[in-house]
Amino acid sequence: MPELPEVEVVRAGLAPAVTGSRVAGVTVWDERALTRHDGDARSFETALTGRRVTGAARRGKFLWLPLDGGDHAVVGHLGMSGQLLLRPPAAPAERHERVRLDIDHPEHGELAVVFADQRTFGSLALDTLVPTPDGAAGGWGTDAATVPTQVSHIARDPLDPAFRDDLFRAALSRKASAIKRVLLDQTVLSGVGNIYADEALWASRIHPETPAAALSSRAARKLLAEIRAVLEKALAEGGTSFDAQYVNVNGQAGYFAHSLNAYGRTGQPCPRCGAPIVRVSFTNRSSHFCPRCQKAPRPPR
User: Is 165-289 CATH 1.10.8.50?
Assistant: First the structure.
């Protein structure tokens, strides 16, 4: 599933093309792409046509396009394989294309924003914007202190200027769950998934099964610093692409996969100590770590 860097790469690519544009037409090819929308395909098409897009924003793995009037936005979640692509007007349909927005930009002219999704777990929706509880901007790419209702329960991500380090450390101290599980909890911090959790834990020398509450203040601070470092490096490298599904708005893949130290490197030597990286099952996913560098927690007595 695309994580913060992959979604941010898409948001940053969309922003200059859609900000200030008018939605000239909407075509829903597959209503399964509107599972989060409160209405049918016709209501989605009718409500969006003629509206003006005022920006492109993101929190965690969600992105949204605020609309004129400041009370609604198009919310997008890429799911497992969703893509938001920019195409020339009247471009032929993409493989697995589900929704197309034809837009008219005052500088760039006509463009098409295509939502394609092979596995149909992603979605678009028209949603209401509500005030943020802390009064800060809703997320990256917006100055407005609003967030879609579908995103309001999602915590801020570690790169958000309004992210509170002290609240994150306090949340860890209250969690008896494994730290890997806590990092994937989008109500604690957002944007981190399986890939970047494994990478940050490797960099911090923390075993994924370590109880979150067992981390010292120093270890928690280092972990947060490593989470930010791996996210920023992945952003600089365009995200992680293992196949053709994770691409930017121009269909290009990121290359952070070449920089991974633990995730997906089962049996390969740890870049730090040389011990083989191991893979274990973890809640329908997998955890990758170095058994020598990342010591397993002691069992409770």
Answer: yes
Tell me the C-alpha distance between 194 and 197, whole Å. Answer: 5
Helix (H, G, I), strand (E, B) or coil at 60: coil
The answer to whether 32 and 38 are in contact (CB under 8 A) is: no
Q: Is 295 a catalytic residue?
A: no
pTM: 0.91
221 is catalytic: no
**Catalytically annotated residue among 3, 8, 45, 97:** 3
Sketch the domain layout of the chain as residue ranges: 4-151, 165-289
102 strand-pairing partners: 25, 112
Catalytic residue among 32, 42, 174, 285: 285
* Residue partners of 216: CB distance under 8 A and separation at least 6: none
Told to judge if 3 belongs to the known catalytic residues of this protein, a careful annotator would answer: yes
2: annotated active-site residue:
yes
Q: Is the pLDDT of residue 187 over 80?
A: yes
For domain 4-151, the CATH architecture is: Alpha-Beta Barrel (3.20)
Q: How far is CA 278 from CA 18, 50, 118, 281, in A?
A: 44, 53, 30, 10
Q: Which residues of 256-277 are buried (b: 16+ CB within 10 A; e: fewer)?
A: bbeebbbbbbeeeebeeeeeeb
Instruction: Dump pLDDT digits (tens) for 216-242.
Output: 999 999 999 999 999 999 888 877 654
- What does the alpha-carbon distance between residue 256 and residue 198 come to, in Å, rounded to a whole number? 14
CB 124 within 8 A of CB 157: no
Q: Which of 11, 51, 58, 61 is catalytic?
A: 61
- Give the Cα separation of 98 and 90 in Å (integer): 15
